[in-house]
Design goal:
Helix content: 40-55%
CATH topology of the largest domain: TIM Barrel
Structural class: alpha/beta
Number of domains: 2
CATH superfamily of the largest domain: EAL domain
Radius of gyration: 27 Å
CATH architecture of the largest domain: Alpha-Beta Barrel
Number of helices: 16
Strand content: 15-25%
Largest sheet: 8 strands, mixed, barrel
């Protein structure tokens, strides 16, 4: 087996591509060549613990140990950082998948660093010549797409799919269009009302960012918000949302009673030097209009952060500004009682999957009942989102939830409609009292 080690920086990766091109040219055009592009998932941990020099040694040793998994003449290319590439000669597409499984699942080497031993986690992207590409450069790019997809899907390995290039091109176009929309201030903020389940009055609003495409329709938030987070656009997008919220509050008349306004925040913003200053300024501006501010963070984003470290400090900074903290989509991830105890939240929003069928699903009723009791014991109020019918509204009220949000109450609306909608709602009898006939007996007994 030969091991090729080109220069380390990303700008000097061309020697690797040239080597792949030469290798392909030497082979018969009808023979399969599989490019397995691997990435060591333990690299950052080793680098942080032992330093850059030790982590480089770690990667070199791992690359050397791959020798035991392949025939003697198989080229292995040591790329920059934590990456490597293997040029395999499979008999079939199935056999190259077997090679990927052998690397990632069956033969994970243990690397010795000083007195410590580490099992190496590896992710692999696969592209096959000539099935997926006719040149070395294209083959490498498509292996990179497969590797990216494997990491996003959280699987050990993945093979290039012909539609991946088109999907990536579409993603890049959306990312470019989103950046332009933010720069031009084209994003809008809509507001969805919340109702207090005891008083039956409007108690809050959630600010929801909206992006209208050139045809006039809305791009789903589930598509462009994650893209903003991964592309770095989340920072300017959040500043634009802050500006839109401040402008809306200035246009609204003063509310008779204080009202809560929640804004979704991505944890990446905690590290931005302007974040706390801008957050405090917005909270102060809203307070002048009898609006209390709450920051919403998803349960998944909180669990992905270091719950015992810096993230708790960041969350406490928000609370010290007099701003509420809501755990959004609670129950969607893998919650733990320890995590719930540590986070200084003032509110929990039960994920809508537990609310959508709560009128007929006794398991959902029991889960919501338990969450309500635990949250109240910890001094948190409970918001049920996704309340889309009066039956579900009735059940969550009977179970002790504090606030309801959903299409049954109101859809998200433009800022110029908010104040009038609240005034009309307050003057009506809608939802002020739930008819007793609509209160199911079973949920009532759960109290």
């Amino acid at each position: 087996m030969s091991i090729v080690r080109p220069a380390g920086s990303a700008r000097r990766i061309s020697p690797s591509i040239r080597f792949i091109e030469q290798f392909l040219q030497q082979r018969s055009s009808n023979r399969l060549t599989g490019l397995l592009l691997g990435q060591l998932d333990s690299f950052n941990r080793i680098s942080t613990t032992f330093g850059e020099e030790q982590s480089s040694t770690f990667c070199t040793r791992y690359t050397d140990k791959l020798r035991d998994l392949f025939p003697p003449a198989t080229p292995i290319i040591r790329l920059s950082g934590r990456r490597f590439a293997v040029l395999a000669s499979p008999d079939s597409m199935a056999s190259i998948m077997d090679l990927a499984a052998r690397i990632t699942e069956e033969s994970q080497p243990q690397i010795q660093v000083g007195d410590d031993s580490f099992i190496v986690d590896v992710t692999v992207g696969i592209a096959v010549h000539p099935t997926h590409a006719s040149s070395g450069a294209s083959l490498f790019r498509r292996a990179e797409l497969a590797l990216k997809n494997a990491r996003e899907r959280e699987v050990a390995y993945d093979i290039y799919r012909p539609d991946a290039t088109k999907q990536q091109a579409t993603l890049w176009k959306m990312e470019s269009n989103l950046s332009k929309a933010i720069q031009r201030g084209e994003l809008e903020v809509y507001y969805q009302p919340k109702v207090d389940l005891r008083s039956r009055v409007v108690s809050g609003l959630e600010a929801l960012v909206r992006w209208r495409n050139p045809e006039g329709g809305f791009v789903p938030a589930d598509d462009f918000v994650p893209l903003a987070e991964t592309s770095g656009q989340i920072v300017p997008m959040t500043w634009l949302v802050f500006d839109r919220v401040r402008a809306a509050a200035e246009d609204w008349k003063s509310f008779e009673q204080p009202i809560d306004l929640s804004i979704n925040i991505a944890p990446q913003l905690f590290e931005h030097p302007e974040f706390y200053r801008r957050l405090a300024a917005l909270a102060e501006a809203l307070a002048g209009h009898k609006i209390d501010m709450t920051v919403e963070l998803t349960e998944d984003s909180l669990l992905d952060s270091d719950a015992e470290g810096q993230s708790i400090v960041d969350l406490e900074k928000i609370r010290k500004l007099g701003i509420g903290l809501s755990i959004d989509d609670f129950g969607k991830g893998h919650s733990s009682l320890t995590y719930l105890k540590q986070i200084p939240a003032s509110e929990i929003k039960i994920d809508k999957k537990f609310v959508e069928s709560i009128a007929t699903d006794t398991a959902d009723q029991q889960i919501v009942k338990a969450v309500v009791e635990l949250s109240h014991a910890l001094g948190m109020k409970v918001v049920a989102e996704g309340v889309d019918c009066i039956e579900n509204f009735s059940v969550i009220a009977a179970l002790g939830c504090d606030v309801a949000q959903g299409f049954y109450i109101a859809r998200p609306m433009r800022p110029d409609l908010v104040f009038e909608w609240i005034a009309c709602y307050s003057d009506s009898a809608v939802l002020r009292a739930t008819p007793p006939s609509l209160l199911p007996e079973e949920p009532a007994k759960l109290n």
